[in-house]
């Protein structure tokens, strides 16, 4: 290989003792370099590479060094488009109702939800739509959402049975999951879901009991924490469903999350193979939840807390170490046939717009008109490779825009929700170092130094600090 270049997607974490953690976001190569490695890396780009040299082979294999003629960004875009345009999987998000029995003030759908359930003719149209896709799909993924979807378990059962019948007959892989507040999730309901191929469930707990019940109470104000905990305990050991506990965090409940982790341990929910916890910031993303903007956390402050919480939850055997993934920004909203289906048959591309009628892209009863809808076309035409923020960022191969909704409908974003970049950008070094710790590559007491090792988001611009 002649005239090699340093990759634009190298991330270097300086450590003490002259060592460096090296990570390439395109290839996800991850390694620990000493001074000798660093000198070889620097000199390799100043002259022709002798590919027979073992260390240089490692650099090339890891993507840290590339040929001058290699179009890195073009290759990333090609791989991105292949994943985004794959037509083998059809993903549908179905709302059997938009009603909810909880009164959460930060809900992106607002508190005033209509009491309506999915019409039978909408269910028929969904079945017909799936049948029309049978010749080309190899898998069907159904996500149940609301409102609170378990307010209408009969619709979930009947529609699941009909979709499963199609998939079984046509040899199509079927997968399903559900996002629920957990109030109705007893063992009988969970068993009904499981036999209909619902594989995973997400339930929210927002801190210890007092904090949770202040913000995730019933519409009448009654508490919910204890019932949710008992439902989880009833299900986790008896039905092989994967249960994810989501914790929404803002300035009001941030001090209670450690206590929640301790509560889960005391309830014998730690160390369960089918239960894990993850954390997410509350953001003011729609008009319906602007009232909580003053309580949201800045991304750096939230990132500091999140790293601490993940470490603690990991110690308590409630989570795994979060790792960067490839193209995490490719959501169902960006794929042509993937749709969010409301009870009345309205179609959206994103869950966050379901309460905003002006953002709908069409109707399940007029699918042929989708291609002419300007909102639909905006979703399909959007690409992170058209956004300067993304194309100039080293995280492009992992983040790929993070959330297209923030670019397409920024008018509703308030506070730091308006910043499109994910939390990873603000705490990348800390999370990668933790991964290295668990691999036995480094030690916090001897290798980490806040002054030189901590994440500086400005260093993640493509082409910046390519030299370690």
From TrEMBL:
Residues covered by the Radical SAM core domain: 86-331
InterPro entries hit by this protein: 4Fe4S-binding_SPASM_dom (IPR023885), Aldolase_TIM (IPR013785), rSAM (IPR007197), rSAM_sf (IPR058240)
One Pfam family recorded for the sequence: Radical_SAM
Gene Ontology MF term list: 4 iron, 4 sulfur cluster binding; catalytic activity; metal ion binding
Keyword terms, alphabetized: 4Fe-4S, Iron, Iron-sulfur, Metal-binding, S-adenosyl-L-methionine
Keyword hit for Iron-sulfur: yes
Requisite cofactors: [4Fe-4S] cluster
Stated name of the protein: Radical SAM core domain-containing protein
């Amino acid at each position: 290989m002649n005239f090699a270049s340093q990759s634009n997607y190298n991330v270097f974490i300086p450590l003490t003792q002259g060592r460096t953690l090296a990570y390439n976001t395109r290839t996800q190569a991850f390694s620990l370099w000493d001074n000798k490695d660093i000198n070889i890396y620097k000199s390799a780009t100043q002259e022709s590479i002798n590919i027979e040299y073992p260390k240089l082979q490692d650099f090339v294999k890891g993507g840290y060094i590339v040929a001058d003629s290699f179009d890195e960004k073009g290759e990333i875009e090609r791989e991105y488009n292949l994943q985004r345009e794959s037509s083998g999987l059809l993903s549908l998000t179905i709302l059997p109702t938009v009603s909810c029995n909880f009164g959460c003030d930060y809900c992106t759908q607002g508190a005033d939800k209509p009491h309506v359930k999915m019409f039978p003719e909408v269910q028929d149209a969904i079945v017909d739509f799936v049948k029309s896709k049978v010749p080309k799909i190899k898998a069907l993924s159904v996500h149940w959402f609301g409102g609170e979807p378990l307010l209408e378990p009969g619709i979930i059962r009947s529609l699941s049975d009909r979709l499963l019948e199609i998939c079984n007959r046509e040899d199509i892989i079927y997968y399903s999951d559900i996002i629920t507040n957990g109030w109705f999730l007893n063992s009988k309901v969970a068993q009904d879901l499981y036999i209909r191929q619902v594989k995973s469930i997400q339930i929210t707990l927002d801190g210890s009991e007092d904090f949770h019940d202040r913000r995730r109470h019933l519409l009448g104000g009654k508490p919910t924490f204890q019932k949710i905990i008992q439902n989880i305990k009833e299900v986790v050991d008896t039905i092989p469903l994967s249960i994810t506990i989501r914790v929404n965090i803002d300035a009001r409940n941030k001090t209670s999350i450690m206590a929640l982790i301790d509560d889960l341990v005391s309830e014998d929910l730690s160390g369960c193979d089918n239960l894990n916890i993850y954390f997410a910031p509350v953001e003011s993303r729609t008009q319906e939840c602007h009232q909580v903007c003053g309580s949201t956390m800045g991304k750096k402050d939230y990132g500091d807390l999140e790293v601490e919480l993940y470490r603690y939850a990991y110690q308590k055997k409630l989570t795994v170490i979060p790792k960067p993934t490839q193209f995490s920004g490719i959501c169902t909203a960006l794929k042509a046939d993937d749709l969010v289906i409301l009870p009345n048959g309205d179609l959206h591309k994103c869950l966050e717009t379901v309460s905003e009628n002006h953002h709908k892209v069409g109707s399940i009863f007029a699918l042929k008109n989708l291609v002419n809808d300007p909102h639909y076309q905006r979703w399909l035409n959007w690409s992170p490779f058209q956004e300067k923020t993304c194309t100039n960022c080293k995280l492009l191969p992992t983040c790929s825009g993070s959330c297209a909704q923030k670019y397409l409908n920024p008018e509703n974003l308030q506070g730091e929700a308006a910043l499109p970049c994910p939390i990873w950008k603000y705490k990348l070094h800390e999370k990668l170092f933790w991964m290295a710790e668990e691999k036995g590559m480094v030690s916090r007491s001897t290798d980490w130094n806040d002054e030189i090792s901590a994440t500086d988001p400005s260093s993640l611009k493509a082409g910046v600090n390519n030299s370690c």
